[in-house]
Amino acid sequence: MSAIQKIIFEDFPLRNGVVQSNIMLSYQLFGQPIGTAPLVLVNHALTGNSQVTGENGWWKSLIGENKTIDTNKCTILAFNIPGNGYQDEENQVENYKDFTTYDIANLFWKGIDSLKIIQVFAVIGGSLGGSIAWEMAFIRPNTIENLIPVATSWKASDWLIGNVLIQDLILNNSKNPIHDARIHAMLLYRTPESFQKKFNSKLQNENGMFQVESWLLHHGEKLQNRFQLSGYKLMNHLLKTTNCFKPLNQSDVLRSLTSNIHLVSVDSDYFFTANEIKTAFLEIKTEKNNVFYHEIKSIHGHDAFLMEYEQLNTILTPIFN
Fold this sequence. Notes:
Keywords: Hydrolase, Transferase. This protein is α/β, with parallel strands linked by helices. Helix content is 37%, strand content 20%. The chain has 2 domains: 228 residues, Alpha/Beta hydrolase fold, catalytic domain (Rossmann fold), CATH 3.40.50; 79 residues, Rna Polymerase Sigma Factor, Chain: A (Orthogonal Bundle). The strands form 2 sheets. The chain has an 8-stranded mixed sheet with strand order 1-2-6-3-7-8-9-10, sandwiched between helices. Helix 3 packs antiparallel against helix 4, helix 3 packs antiparallel against helix 7 and helix 4 crosses helix 6.
């Protein structure tokens, strides 16, 4: 496993004017040494981390030796969003409402600069990680060759903002906040059809508990055992802060982007809907020719970007070949 490395920034200004002192950015590198191969930045989602490949890698079906994103041919860089708690419980962020996806994107660029990286072959991320990828592209429109936001959008929808509010209320008011928030979130990440196919209303035991209830309780306990409350509050809050055009003109920003843009949606996703991603594609298409729309077909909703590996590999293979 690639060792976690750390960079400390003593004074980091946030978009709202707050100066964050001693913010730590941790990261992992996989594959080829920096400067010897195309650099691929992988941004993790809400409950993810920098371990993107290897035995415990959350995207190991996509990234690794002889995989679609091949560690024999690429340098893979993955940052941890500060406060996500991965192997560092001390790096907590209490003032979570001061942060936005813009700030995380800006921090990632500072990390890239610290590593003396000049050009980025691709930035890919799913869900929250994809929103941060969008922000990174707009901060430096000439640095990313291929921008690949998966199951995400460049602006938080009202539906998403509403659900973030519910999650925040649970996290701040429940007696069992991470556990209960995760159970609610799992209902957003899947679909009724996905649940029905998986459980079919079957009982788990003679006590009358349904399999779906047991499964949801298990996911609540699992996340509770590995996530800090402050980290979950931050990750949830970040979801609603994405607005890549604030305070910029959309047409001007899009025209300035040199990246090839590959938008990937899931047809059954109602967290970041296929319709809003398709709408973004059509808006970009009026300003740029090198934009492409791809759609994963699945009954599993938002989580399909972590489940439908064959479809995602098919979409990404031409880009990384």
